[in-house]
């Protein structure tokens, strides 16, 4: 066999190896799925296939650059939720974990709260609505939008820090959460105080409604239970002295002193007293968000 024939045969052999390794188009239709697996078995199978591919004698060319720009499983904290700033770096294979009590503001309370929001934005014009990141001043132009967007959605009482978890920890965390909260006690949650919180990075100030009486003991016990699960998985625990609350608005930087003064002024001039209960709701269960997926841990008993 002469040299040109040997080169042609080598090219054919290499092409066949590439086709066999990559497979046809139908085998790669799910490559873009970045949702966390629900069990370690799927990860094990993936690792086995990867190991088998690495053992092939033929070296494959590098993948297209577009494949390297896969969606970040932690980006939900930055897309459409700019008020939530991730305080840990992205590492491939990590997913953001957030455990919380969902809270809905009663329709009977929305009118008074909407009036308060209109007054506070006049003296603090740079306020934004938490999570949706729309300037409050824009929503105040339409009463219906103000109530629907700023007040008519799901709020969260955090039971633990938002932390990164590895894929192999997900099933264990979910199992332990459901065991801990298999029979939750029904109770009422009173939001009785306007408060201003600042994040650890001093980049955001949050206007929030705090739980200081009714429901405080129950929520605190639930935070302690979540802390036990965090410790078991070597995750950072919640703040030493937790202050359960739901955040309503945010402003850039540490403007807590200014915001507190303005809130006091608005409350003094209006009909909503600082000492008056803002609203009350029933405990309706616990949810857990991991990456883009949300899991129901338990329901509040009727």
Automatic annotation (TrEMBL):
Record's subcellular location: Nucleus
Ranges of compositional bias, category Low complexity: 21-42
Domain of life: Eukaryota
Keyword Nuclease: yes
InterPro entries: Usb1 (IPR027521)
Keywords: Hydrolase, Lyase, Nuclease, Nucleus
Oxidoreductase recorded as keyword: no
Residue segments, region Disordered: 21-71
EC numbers on record: 3.1.4.-
Protein name: U6 snRNA phosphodiesterase
Organism: Papaver somniferum (Opium poppy)
Functional note: Phosphodiesterase responsible for the U6 snRNA 3' end processing. Acts as an exoribonuclease (RNase) responsible for trimming the poly(U) tract of the last nucleotides in the pre-U6 snRNA molecule, leading to the formation of mature U6 snRNA.
GO annotation terms (biological process): U6 snRNA 3'-end processing
Active site: 156 (proton donor/acceptor), 245 (proton donor/acceptor)
Any one GO MF annotation of this record: lyase activity
Cellular component GO terms, alphabetical: nucleus
Sequence similarity: Belongs to the 2H phosphoesterase superfamily. USB1 family.
């Amino acid at each position: 066999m002469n040299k040109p024939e040997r080169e042609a045969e080598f090219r054919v052999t290499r092409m066949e190896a590439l086709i066999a390794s990559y497979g046809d188009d139908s085998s790669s239709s799910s490559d873009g799925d970045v949702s966390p697996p629900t069990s370690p078995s799927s990860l094990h199978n993936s690792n086995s296939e990867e190991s088998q591919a690495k053992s092939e004698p033929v070296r494959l060319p590098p993948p297209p650059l577009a494949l390297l720009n896969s969606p970040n499983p932690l980006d939900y904290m930055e897309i459409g939720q700019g008020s939530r700033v991730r305080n840990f770096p992205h590492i491939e294979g990590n997913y953001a974990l957030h455990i919380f009590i969902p809270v809905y503001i009663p329709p009977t309370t929305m009118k008074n709260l909407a009036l308060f929001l209109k007054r506070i934005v006049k003296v603090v014009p740079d306020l934004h609505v938490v999570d949706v990141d729309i300037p409050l001043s824009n929503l105040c132009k339409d009463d219906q939008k103000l109530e629907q967007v700023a007040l008519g959605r799901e709020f969260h009482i955090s039971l633990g820090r938002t932390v990164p978890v590895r894929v192999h920890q997900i099933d264990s965390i979910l199992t332990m959460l459901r065991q801990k909260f298999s029979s939750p006690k029904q109770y009422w949650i009173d939001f009785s105080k306007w408060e201003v919180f600042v994040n650890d990075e001093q980049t955001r100030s949050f206007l929030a409604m705090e739980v200081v009486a009714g429901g405080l003991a129950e929520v605190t016990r639930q935070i302690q239970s979540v802390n036990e699960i965090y410790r078991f998985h070597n995750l950072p625990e919640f703040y030493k002295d937790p202050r359960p609350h739901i955040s309503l608005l945010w402003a850039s930087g540490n403007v807590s002193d200014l915001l507190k003064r303005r809130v006091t002024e608005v409350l003094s001039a209006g009909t909503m007293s600082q000492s008056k209960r803002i609203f009350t709701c029933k405990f309706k269960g616990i949810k857990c968000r991991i990456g883009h997926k949300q899991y129901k841990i338990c329901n509040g008993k009727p």
